[in-house]
Amino acid sequence: APTTPAPATPDEAGARFWEAARGEDLSALADTLQLQDGPARAALAQVMPALTRWRKQQDERTTLGSWRYRLSWRPAPETFDGRLHHTWLLLGTAGSDQRWAEDALTARGARVMRLELTSEDADRDRLSSRLKEALADGASEVTGVLSLLASAESPHPGLPGLPEGLALNVAAVQALGDAGIDAPLWLVTSGAVSVSGVERLASPVQAQSWGLGRVAALEHPLRWGGLIDLPADPDAQTAARLTDVLALGGDEDQWAIRATGSYVARLTPYRRRSDETVREWSPSDTVLITGATGSLGPHVARWAAARGAGRIVLASRRGAASPGAMALLEELTALGVSASAESCDFGNRDEVASLIGRLAGTGHTVRTVFHAAAHLALGSLEETTLPEFARIVRAKVNGAANLAEFLDSEALQDFVLFSSVAGVWGSGEHAAYAAANAFLDAFAQQRRADGLPATSVAWGIWREQTTIERTDATRIVQRGLPFIAPELAFRELEQVLGDNETFLVVADVDWASFLPVFTSMRPSPLISEVPEVQAIAGQTAAVPEVNPEPDLRRRLASLTADERGDAILELVRAHAAAVLGHSSADHIGPERAFRDLGFDSVMSVGLRNRLNEVTGLALPPTMVFDHANPAELAEHLRYQLLDERAVTAESVISDIDRLEGDVVGLGADDTALLRLAERLGAMLMRVDQLRAPATETDSGLDVENASTEEILHFLDEEFGRRDA
């Protein structure tokens, strides 16, 4: 017999109702309300446009609300009190005070090697040579690098647009790698961040090193330590907290140390203070737009015109000669706006002074500025030269500083800086761009603290920005950053200005796609408080570990040892080929590096997911980077699946490296260390016997009478070590 369908729940009925209203489907809406007669349906047709409009407004408000984030600071527990080991390299500028840091490192057990740099050392090759010379054969003994270079805020004499400290930090990131120093690098700043609403941000210049560091963390995760901001005059307590952070290790890599304690950075959802706007925002008198003929400038101009701007000045390097400038002027004039195009290199102080002077001479006062000028050239830190770095930074940083210097602050109503999420959480191949945008965010906070108008919005990617050279739109979306439609962006900007905010992140992020890629090489506590991230982490933790597919296990068990190795290798090659879009595995050489095959972070996550599904393992997103080629990855899978592994010198050394970390964890337990020393001594004797079984060997170490430290040092010399 036919059954009567169960009645819809209130939630289901409500969802159907609003879905019909959203789609302007009168028939579906009437059926949902069970309206049969003509008059009732006619009445519904009259109110339906209002229902649809209201629903869309609510959807839009929800969408925009989910795009807003802000940087917050959380107190960190001060229970570290750890020890530092081996040699720490201390980088500072000549003539600066580094003694306090050296004393603090030494007090925690480190041997300190200090290297003083000058502006001439902002050269990758020169600095690499100096590092190699200073360390000689001791590079493997360096367990940490602490850079105090950011405090050199004066402009570099040979790199217009770059402060000396930033230039030296860029060179240091590059040169440390060239010199073979894989120890984690920590960049120290002073006054580059503000941990509370009452603390004045003292140094937007040093904030640029935060933008640099956030990208270095993504591009060089294995030799990255973190960022630490200190008070202007470090005292003994500050120094102790600094070394606490260095000794702690772990995943936290964005710190601020203050007299009140240590703090860590967190990205948090922004909630408006109230439903009431502070003001109804609209431009008045003259609106100046920098980068006016770039990807975003024309949209800003049209929006300002629609919001009632009386006069708009379109400023760019080429002025009226810029492509599209004349057409835009005609469009604005047709809208009833007085518009002009001016040429100005905003990175040039004299040109900015001249432009502001000319505008003042016309009797119009600039009351609103939209600083959207940018020079974007993608390139990894490894490939970017310092002159290229300087060119990218100059347009945003010098432009903002020059405008602030020459504009009439008393007359200025809004000083709006178009920033980017690259400066907030980093973005691969955007180191210089991230540094410049970190300056804008910090500059806005400093101006507000000084009672001056400023708003910085760190945008996600606008749809119009996908036309920039080398931008791969599909790849960006795959990485979890859907494009922002200009009409929605301007509604959000109008709200931000109406609320009189200082600094906000506005980005559409698909966290389910973004998170595994962004954290593929290292965790990111910065985003750990985003609700979507927490939900994803909870789902991941709730998934039980599964066994490998029975068919795969049975098939491998029926094969010989050599056949098992070949089968797993073919499995890896086949799935790698599928991820890369190849029809067969012929192009996937066993010894060919994944990077050379074309793998990026998105693809590595895709291969990880495929192999997890077919093997039942819980492989990490860093799998492709941990194992350089298909052959190495297949060997790892063989060990994980079957507990089989070829015993080689490399595999044994890898085990020793792993055990070394366990040894450090023993701390000062003398009994345990004595037992360990005895066991290692016996192992060393066995190694000597294997090296020369027919002759008496001499290890160079009196095992019977050696101290624990001597035995551990001998192991380092014999088998090598892997520094953290």
Produce a short descriptive summary.
This protein has 724 residues and is α/β, with parallel strands linked by helices. It has 27 helices and 15 strands. Strand 12, helix 12 and strand 13 form a beta-alpha-beta unit.
Mean of residue pLDDT? 84
What best-fitting shape do the alpha-carbon axes yield?
Answer: globular
User: Which ranges are low-confidence, i.e. pLDDT below 50, for 5 or more consecutive residues?
Assistant: 543-548, 693-699, 718-724
* Lateral arrangement of strands in the main beta sheet: 3-2-4-5-6-7-8-1-15-14-13-12-9-10-11
Largest sheet descriptor: 15 strands, mixed
Give the strand tally: 15
The N- and C-terminal alpha carbons lie at a distance of: 71 Å
Gyration radius over CA: 30 Å
Total DSSP helices? 27
The helix fraction, in percent, is 40-55%
Percent strand equals 5-15%
Class of secondary structure makeup? alpha/beta
Task: Please render the helix and strand layout as text.
Elements: H1 10-22, H2 26-32, H3 38-65, E1 68-76, E2 87-93, H4 99-107, E3 111-117, H5 124-135, E4 142-147, H6 164-178, E5 185-190, H7 204-219, E6 224-230, H8 236-248, E7 254-258, E8 261-269, E9 286-290, H9 297-306, E10 311-316, H10 325-334, E11 338-343, H11 349-361, E12 366-371, H12 386-406, E13 414-420, H13 422-425, H14 431-449, E14 455-459, H15 473-478, H16 486-498, E15 503-506, H17 511-518, H18 531-542, H19 550-557, H20 561-580, H21 594-597, H22 601-615, H23 623-626, H24 630-642, H25 649-665, H26 670-691, H27 708-719
Parallel strand pairs: 2-3, 2-4, 4-5, 5-6, 6-7, 9-10, 9-12, 10-11, 12-13, 13-14, 14-15
Antiparallel strand pairs: 1-8, 1-15, 7-8
Helix pairs in contact: 1-2, 4-8, 5-6, 6-7, 7-14, 11-12, 12-14, 20-22, 20-24, 26-27
